[in-house]
Amino acid sequence: MNASAPDRLLIAVGNSARGDDGLGWAFADAIAEGGRFDGEILYRYQLQVEDAELISRAGQVVFVDAWQNGDTPFQWAPCEGKPQPTYTSHRLEPPAVVHLCNELFDATPKTYCLLISGEQWQLGDGLSAHALHNLAQAIDFFNLQIADRA
Predict the structure, then answer these.
(1) I need a labelling partner for 78 at 20 to 30 A (CA). Which of 56, 111, 126, 141 fits?
(2) Cα separation, 82 vs 6, whole angstroms
(3) How far apart are CA 31 and CA 114, in angstroms?
(4) Do the beta carbons of residue 61 and residue 97 sit within 8 Å?
(5) Under a CB-based contact definition with an 8 Å cutoff, are residues 77 and 57 in contact?
(6) Angle 132-37-80 (CA atoms, 0-180°, nearest 5)?
């Protein structure tokens, strides 16, 4: 790992102009404002091939995104590298970015996905009440599991 690279990285994926698709960014805003996360926080509309190099320099990476069809407020799981059927210059899923990181840079950071359940995806600013409720639960969980650990 590069000495100047952050040991912990949070990558928020989303689009705040598409309703609950802004959950990832809202989560990142709340974590940044809380000041308890000691890593770097980045915002992305979509994950790209270049993000594989970025995560290769970190020790721990958390991808945060909105989630459709979730039966629970949020889902937290290790993010295992998995090839994507086709690669384009943009729009990769977190497992594909992790796979490229492993294959191209021989790096294996600890990676996790935090998916927060939403229900409204049309154009427009603001999160639904459902999304706000789930966001609060995800923030509490994250602060207990990750941000407060030394």
Answers:
(1) 126
(2) 24
(3) 13
(4) no
(5) no
(6) 80
| Residue 108 to residues 12, 33, 67, 70, 97, Cα–Cα distance (Å) | 20, 29, 25, 28, 11
For the record, the structure tokens of 61 come out as 């990476």
Structure tokens at 63: 């991808």
In the chain, the domains with their CATH numbers are 8-147 (3.40.50.1450)
Identity of the residue numbered 18: R
Helix (H, G, I), strand (E, B) or coil at 140: helix
Residue tagged 């960014």 (tokens): 25
Judge whether 130 and 119 are in contact, CB under 8 Å.
Answer: yes
The pLDDT tens digits along the chain (150 residues) read 445 567 999 999 999 999 999 999 999 999 999 988 989 999 999 999 999 999 999 999 999 999 997 789 999 999 999 887 766 656 799 999 999 999 999 999 999 999 999 999 999 889 999 999 999 999 999 998 876 553
Q: Which two tokens stand for residue 127?
A: 């999160």
